[in-house]
Structures are given as structure tokens and as C-alpha cells.
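Assess this one:
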Amino acid sequence: MNAPLPDHIRQALETVTLDDKYSLDVGRAFMSGVQALVKLPMLQRQRDALQGKNTAGFISGYRGSPLGGYDQALWKAQKYLQAQNIVFQPGVNEELAATALWGSQQLGFAPAGTQKFDGVFGIWYGKGPGVDRCADVFKHANMAGTTPWGGVLAVAGDDHVAKSSTAAHQSDHIFKACGLPVFFPANVQEILDLGLHALAMSRFAGVWAGMKTIQEIVESSATAHIDPERVQIVLPEFEMPPGGVHIRWPDTALEQEARLFDTKWYAALAYIRANKLNHNVIEGPNDRFGIIASGKAYNDTRQALLDLGLDDTTCQRLGIRLHKVAVVWPLEAQTTREFATGLREILVVEEKRQVIEYQLKEELYNWRNDVRPDVIGKFDDVGNDHSGGEWSMPNPSANTLLRANADLSPAIIARAIAKRLKKIGMDAETIGRIDMHLAVLDAKDRSMQTITLGAAAERLPWFCSGCPHNMSTRVPEGSRAMAGIGCHFMTLWMDRSTTGFTQMGGEGVPWVGQQPFTHEQHMFANLGDGTYFHSGILAVRQSVAAGVNITYKILYNDAVAMTGGQRVGERPEGHSVVQIAQSMRAEGAQRIDVVTDEPDKYKGVALAEGVTVHHRDELDRIQREMREIQGTTVIIYDQTCATEKRRRRKRGTMVDPAVRVMINEAVCEGCGDCGVQSNCLSVEPLETEFGRKRTINQSTCNI
């Protein structure tokens, strides 16, 4: 156990560094899925160089979980990216970032002699809601096409269970609606491998490629094999139309549509088929039950089979065939038919709404009844009479097999597989072993169950200690506020008279549709500084244009703390309170006040005409005055994020104050009002011989 390592292993380990994932040209390196997305364009550039092409890369997008750390990883790897002619320029929002990527492909018809490179390939990134807002750009850019040595990969970070989002989302359907083939990697290595395939397909077929990532994959870490020649790409024989499939100018809308519908999708399918991106993982000569899955669902399915005691050898003996899909749309037909041949039934395992299942059913619809297998997925069959599918039932939810809401787990999948295997018929010994394994799963579930203490015992997310929102989100008695995207969203479950929220960039605009029909005369709207820069300024513009009585509280926290403390705005100098005040004056706000915990820092600062600065202690008075003003007013609440303060103090870029907040338990009366008024998690109960008092948790206090 404690024997010394062999010399060759020890010497190899001595040369290992954390930068291997970026510096190595060939070898193995430990990396996360996010870091694999950083390495991907470097590999693409190296592959092009091996083919004698001098290409460059362009990356743009907008941060958001589970890709929240991608921009930071790109900045940290900047010297490696620059060495490979790769430019990273974050977008003000997702839509404009996608437009910039579209522009990288428009170099295909730039004036002769103006291009520095043979082509520019691109990567767009954003979380699921960002995919939603980019549909218009995606459709336009995808129809326009890519260049032969360019290509674009759009990477979506999906949040299937709304862990860090206001709604659960799934990008497959949006990508499909925009005509982007959708890749779904199942591990870190596949982010590299399928990423290279996606860019190659984008070049070959003239389409943008989509890639779906979720937290379980992109935030995981593993050792990956780095080699620009690892992926062997096969360009299929495919008859291209006159003029090809790539971007050109001039180019009419109907010509673009015809090229996409008649050629480009089928060229993409030919690429998927030629490179065997979808393939059988388990198969045997007497298969009768098939399972098809992709991405995380594929990993969960493998685990589910093992949980049932069904290893590869056992599956082959029992006639179970497993098909892994790397490109979930469009589902390649020839490979799918080959997978389905000889099967009695196919179980489709996929999270969220059906993508593969509907395509599979459509592909197999015109097969003869004697060879066409039954297809089961989200819903179980009712009987053996083939009386209809889910849409023929008034409400099929009582017949759910693999739920479409939330996510799936290996246990859920294992129970579905067991149920279907029993239905199609297995020998008694096999069924007995499966039941034994199911009993173990049930016992594990019971052991993990917790006592339900009721809603009052639920622990909700809360503001950090010292958070500016503890003060900034308060409204005067008799007033109401609306929430939006950001930490201040948590006011919805606090006693802050805040109700309702909007998508990012729509803050306060619901009041435009309410004021004409209510006796209420005024509304407050909370708007984060990051959201303001992203798209929220247009919400203010809408309220000004509609002439509604509303006060926007622009919560300037000096950092986008939820995704790692990035600057507000994408410029090196950030986006300042002075700039926001000037913009709000230009937009037509009736009154603009700056409220801050440090009013002295504005002495001598040239603010827009009429803008005044106040201490945060005056917030209530200012709000009461503004709710009496007709039209749109603005309060810019300036106080640095408490979490960012903690980060900066650790880095030595901000002074750690010598003064601490304390509670003297000898004089504390135990009323608890300090906790109520401060709304601060660091105010904690302290049990004493005289009863419960209060104390400050110094390890969590950010004052």
C-alpha cells in the first residue's frame, strides 16, 4: 500500500501541472466539462493546421449556470487561446453574442484580400433561457450558413430541475425549431470529441450545430485524452447543389430556406451516419427488447441496468439491445432502423419532453405490422390491443412510465425497464433476480426518506450576511414591488411586499399591462445592475414610453456575484453608476437619485444634471417622495455585494475593516428584533442561563 511508485510513473507525475489541460498538445489531462469547452477550440485550430489551413476562432456568449464559469475559464486560459488565434469577446447579452458569431461567418463574402485567415470557427454559449431569446438569430444565421473552414457550435447549459433558474428548461426543442442539429455529450471526453464532430458537420453541411450540456456532465471532472488527431472524421459522399451549401451574398430568404430544407439537413444526416455518431453499445443475435438513450439519460440507463443485475453479458443473453444517441435531432433514420430491426419493443429513455421518442415513432410508422416494434417512453401502454397512444387518451398522466417533468434517476429508469421486461416476458429465474434487485432499490429509497416537518421547517435560500438587498429591496408601507432575475428574486418569499417576477430584461413591464385597470397608482420594480446592462434598460424605456407611474430601483452591487463576481458590463472598466445615471437621464426618467452607503465617494464626481446623492438611511423618505411623482423615476442603490466584498478581502484588493459588529449578551434582552430588522443570517440565537439571547456569527459576517 505504501510501496514507492515506479520511477517512470514518479517522473511522469513530477511533470504534471494544472495547466496540462491547455498546454498539452497530446496526452491525458484532468479537466472539467467547462475546461473541455475551453480546450475544444484549441484542438480545432491544431487540426486545421495539420491540414495546412490557417484558421482562427471566435467565442462569444453570456454567462449563466451551468456554464456560469465558462467566461472565467476562458479569461484564465487567454494566453493559450491567443497562441491559437482564438478571440474571446463576451456578449452584452446572448442575442448580440450570437449575432457576432453570425458575423464571423459573413467573412465568407468579405471583399477579396481582406481576410487574415482561411476561415473563422465559432462557439456561442448561454444557459437555456438565453437559447430561447436567441431563436431569431439562430434561425437567420443557420439559414445563411457557415463557411467551409469556419463553422459554429452553439453550446446550451440546460437546467432540467430549475436549480438555478426561475423555470425548468430544455433547449432541444428550440434548437430543433431553429434547424440546428443537437449533440448531447455524456461525459467530459465526449465534449471534446463530439465538439470536433459538431464543427466538422457545421462546415460540411453549412449549418450551425447545437450542443446540449447539463450540470451533471459539464460541471463534472475527469481525465480526458487530448490529441488533435484522436477524432477520425469521415466526410460522406453526398451530392451538393450548384453553388454548394455555404454562406454567400446576395442570397434571398426563399433560396436560404430551400437550401436548408432540401439539402443541408440531409447533408448533416449523411455526416452523422458516416461517422456512426449513433450506435449500438450492447447487442446480440437474438435481441427482442431495445433501449435508446442519450447524454445523462444514457449514463443513468447504464447504471439502472447494473442496479437490476443486468451487465452487458446478461443483457446479450436475455436479448436486450442498448442504442446510444449522440445527435438527438435529427435522428438518423438508417441507423435507427438497423437498431430497431428484430426487436419486439423499444423503450426510449430521455429527460424532459420527448425528442427522440416522437422521431422514432415517425420513422417506424410505415413499417409492416409484423416487423414494427412497439415504442414506449413517457407513457406505458394501456393494454395489448394497440388502442392508441398518449394523445388518444383524455389524460394519460395516470399511465406515466418515465416522467417528462423534473429529471430522471437510475432508480426510476430501473423500475421502468423491469416493468417492461416483465410485460414482454422473461423466465422465472430472471424475474426473481430482478425483483430482488428492485427490493434493494426500494430499501435504499426508504432509508433516504426524511421526516417531513411541514412548510414552516423548510429552509429557503436567503440573502448573504451584509447583502445590500437587505436594505435596498424594502418598500414604504402601502407600496408594492415587482421582482426580476438576480439575488433580489429571493424577496418573493420574504416579507418585502414583493409579488410577481419577469424574465430577464422585462422587469417592471408587467405594470404597463396593469396600471390602466387598477386603482393602484404606483409600483416599484427591482432591477439588478447585471440585468440592466444585459437588457433591462429596454424595460425602463418601455415604462417611459407607456407613461406609467413606476420607480425602478437599479441595484448596483458592483459585481455579477451569482456567477463568480464578474464586472458589471463586459468592458474592462465595467459599467459605473455615473454611466447608468446618464443613460437614465437620456431615456427620460423624471427623477434620478443615487442612494449609497458611501456618499462621500461622489464628492467632486460629475453626475448627470439633476441627479442627487443620498445616504442609504434616507431610502424610505426618497421612495415615499418618488411614488407621488407622475411617470418613471429611478433610484440607483449603490452598495457592493457582500460576497464580492469577502472575495476581494481574501485577495487583498479591499480593506478588511478592523471594526466588528458585536452583541453584548449581558445587555441583550432576547427580543430578536435585531434579526428581524437586519434580515441577516449572521444574527443567531444564543442559549444562556437567562434564556435565549442573540449573537453575531463572526465567521459569516461580511460587514
Summary: The longest strand covers residues 119-127. The mean pLDDT is 92. Residues 504 and 636 are 18 Å apart (CA to CA).
